[in-house]
Design goal:
Immunoglobulin-like; 8-stranded parallel β-sheet; elongated; alpha/beta; TIM Barrel; single chain
């Protein structure tokens, strides 16, 4: 393995940890008791005869690396079945599935998982257990971050580097142990992993070193037994190996592909996300099949429903109502971490609003990540299960049709004459009735919402449907004949599931 770091000169030999034992330096003066480190750490004799631990991406001298740990057994029914797949991408029935059938993927932001595992593993284990118990399938974790001063004192550092403000950051000597351990803990808890990275300027513009690190992380996670659902570079417009915006081919060649080569198991690769609230034309669609987006967080103050509408902004057009479909991942929506202040949604710390946003993304052919707290820093003092909407978001997948993304293929704003339901008051004050229907127009699902907490639903045809409160699952059934109306009240909105009679 080639060197990623500048290893100390004058080293006489490198020893690899095997089973717990005692190592003796070449001059016989120093012995070290080796801990059970998963056979990842390399022990290196220094010029003074002492032995220092160096993570295995450092160097390998005159010997193959020791075997990585065997994957742990999966946690039975707690383990999400199979690897996540994107199926029939670009076709009318594109959707996500695993080996038990179609799935609406739901995850949560845990960007600081590696740091928290390192400083307080008990709390880390508690939080991933709580998340899995709530119904989350995966977590988005930063595997490297810290070049920007924002992350000061909370870097996730695979090696020594100089931060943007000139601070010299010491790499974690146990970095690889933490990566393997995180993967093992996730697998044991039944969680999959969304691999992310940021601040890759820490590699100082060295693309080859970036690729070596990405490949090694892939190898370590494969050895840990965790299933990786997605891999991305976080907000690549600002997080890359240099201070310029990269060419898409660089992201693929020096990060995504090396990781996939190391991991050795198919996963869904994402290459970019649009900046918060960017107009559609400015979105970087670098992945040819799966889009990634970071949700609109209220930059357009007069657009009171923008956070929800943005969830479908690439796939839903009010004027036409039948846009091209595109499978996607909403990896950083608006939410408790980035409140939207508006009469309808905000701040986005109302569980009803947060859960409605998740429903909006599922209806828009997206996997959804509950953006519980931004970045690494918050995690040391933040318990995920105390944040608004945490328990509600995973339940949304159970309120929607099981074949939602594969069978409900037509998008219809309520103003379209084909829509079975519309607003009897003519869509005042940002009110919306957004539906998706099956190809035959018989079954429909969608949402009713607006900035005044009230919408008068008007049936264009005879329908039967349920109105579901998104954060509680409370459901009420209704039957309307053509021309009949129903007054619907809410804080943020209601989910609709029904059929034409």
């Amino acid at each position: 393995m080639r060197t990623l770091l500048a290893i100390l000169a004058c080293c006489s030999v490198t020893l690899h940890a095997q089973e717990p034992s005692r190592l003796v330096s070449t001059d016989g003066r120093t012995t070290v008791t080796v801990q059970n480190d998963g056979n990842v750490v390399v022990y290196q004799v220094q010029p003074d005869g002492t032995i220092a631990a160096v993570w295995a991406t450092g160097t390998v001298v005159d010997a193959p690396p020791p075997p990585l740990p065997s994957p742990p057994p999966l946690a039975g029914e707690n383990q999400l079945h199979g690897a996540l797949r994107a199926v029939s991408v670009g076709s009318p029935d594109s959707h996500f599935r695993h080996d038990t059938g179609e799935v609406l993927p739901v995850g949560f932001t845990y960007m600081g998982a590696l740091e928290q595992r390192r400083v307080n593993r008990d709390e880390f284990l508690r939080q991933i257990a709580v998340a899995r118990g709530a119904g989350y399938q995966f977590a988005r974790v930063l595997m490297a971050v810290g070049w920007y001063p924002y992350w000061a004192d909370h870097e996730v550092a695979p090696m020594d580097f100089t931060a943007q403000d000139g601070r010299r950051i010491q790499g974690w000597p146990d970095y690889e142990q933490q990566v393997v351990g995180l993967g093992q803990d996730f697998a044991a808890a039944g969680l999959q992993l969304f691999v992310s990275a940021g601040d890759l300027q820490m590699f100082g513009g060295n693309l080859e070193a970036t690729a070596q690190w990405a490949r090694r992380v892939g190898e370590l996670l494969n050895a840990s037994g965790v299933r990786v659902a997605f891999v991305d570079v976080n907000e690549v417009w600002q997080n890359w190996v240099t201070d310029r915006e990269p060419d898409p081919s660089e992201v693929l060649e020096f990060y995504i592909q090396p990781f996939l080569d190391g991991y050795g198991t198919p996963t869904i690769a994402l290459r970019s996300a649009n900046f918060e609230g960017e107009e559609i034309d400015a979105v970087n669609r670098w992945a040819g099949d799966i889009d990634q987006k970071h949700g609109h967080r209220g930059h357009f103050e007069q657009d009171h429903t923008s956070a929800v509408r943005h969830a479908r902004s690439f796939y839903y057009d009010e004027g036409e109502g039948v846009p091209a479909r595109q499978l996607c991942v909403e990896s950083e929506p608006a939410g408790p971490a980035a409140p939207l202040i508006s009469p309808v949604m905000g701040p986005l710390d109302d569980p009803e609003a947060v859960a409605l946003l998740a429903a909006s993304n599922f209806i828009g052919d997206c996997a959804f990540v509950y953006h519980s707290a931004a970045g690494v820093r918050a995690w040391l003092g933040t318990a995920i299960d105390e944040q608004p909407g945490f328990a509600a978001v995973p339940k949304i997948q159970h309120y929607l049709p099981s074949d939602l993304q594969s069978s409900y293929v037509t998008r219809l704003h309520g103003g379209r004459p084909e829509s079975p339901l519309t607003d009897g008051d003519g869509f005042p004050n940002e009110n919306r009735v957004d539906l998706v229907t099956t190809a035959d127009g018989r079954r429909f699902a969608g949402m009713v919402y607006g900035d005044d907490g009230y919408t008068r639903l008007l049936a264009r045809v005879a329908v039967r449907f349920s109105l579901i409160t998104p954060d509680t699952g409370e459901s009420h059934a209704f039957t309307l004949d053509a021309g009949e109306t129903l007054d619907v009240y809410y804080r943020a909105g209601r989910v609709l599931v029904g059929e034409v009679r």
